[in-house]
Amino acid sequence: MTPLPHPAEILLVEDNPADILITREAFADFKLGNTLHVVEDGEAAMAFLRREGQYARAPRPDLILLDLNLPRKNGREVLTDIKDDPALQEIPVVVLTTSNSEEDVHHAYGNHANCYIVKPVGFQNFSRAIREIHNFWFQIAALPSETAYGEDNHQNPAD
């Protein structure tokens, strides 16, 4: 599979500052060259995805990394909203959470999550998981092209 013709746009939906930092460090360590956007609650995630308010010029993500335990709107609700919205439902969503609850796993897949990963413990294990996510989604898997969305989704916010 041919890699994306542009740096991947990844939306991390995570409220834990330590997990945000470790994710940024993992991307930096592997020099993945992606653009990592971070929002810290479910309402901000939906505003980003729908390009509302301060996110009016946000790019369309190629991948969403979604925690389940979020303030204001939890990740379960965000996942349902994404997969129920025809304009968003094709964006792959990787649930990346500390929950290993069978109920959460069933809910995630029942609401069309593309993958469910329990956050590995320790920087090396977490970093390796991030690299594997990147390799799978941007080196192996086929993703819809920008033209399938009917717009240029990777615009420069400074334009």
Characterization of the model:
With 159 residues, this protein is an alpha/beta fold. It has one domain (9-141): Rossmann fold, CATH 3.40.50. It contains five helices and five strands. The protein has helices spanning 17-29, 42-49, 75-84, 102-110, 123-140; strands at residues 9-13, 35-39, 63-66, 93-97, 115-118. Strands 2-1-3-4-5 form a five-stranded parallel β-sheet, sandwiched between helices. α2 (42-49) packs parallel to α3. It is globular and about 35 Å long. The protein starts with 8 loop residues before the first strand and ends in a 19-residue tail after the last helix. The relative contact order is 0.18. The model is unreliable at 147-159 (pLDDT under 50).
Helix content: 25-40%
Tally of distinct domains: 1
Backbone shape? globular
Q: Tell me about the biggest sheet?
A: 5 strands, parallel
The name of the CATH topology is Rossmann fold
CATH class: Alpha Beta
Fraction of residues in β-strands: 5-15%
Number of helices: 5
Tell how many strands the DSSP assignment holds. Answer: 5
CATH hierarchy: architecture? 3-Layer(aba) Sandwich
Order of helices and strands: EHEHEHEHEH
Computed Rg: 15 Å
Overall mean pLDDT: 86
Structural class computed from helices and strand pairing: alpha/beta
**Low-confidence spans: pLDDT under 50, at least 5 residues?**
147-159
What is the assigned CATH homologous superfamily?
Response regulator
Termini Cα gap = 31 Å
User: Strands of the largest sheet, in order across it?
Assistant: 2-1-3-4-5
Short description:
The longest helix has 18 residues, at 123-140. The chain has 5 helices and 5 strands; from the N terminus they run βαβαβαβαβα. Helix 1 crosses helix 5 (123-140).
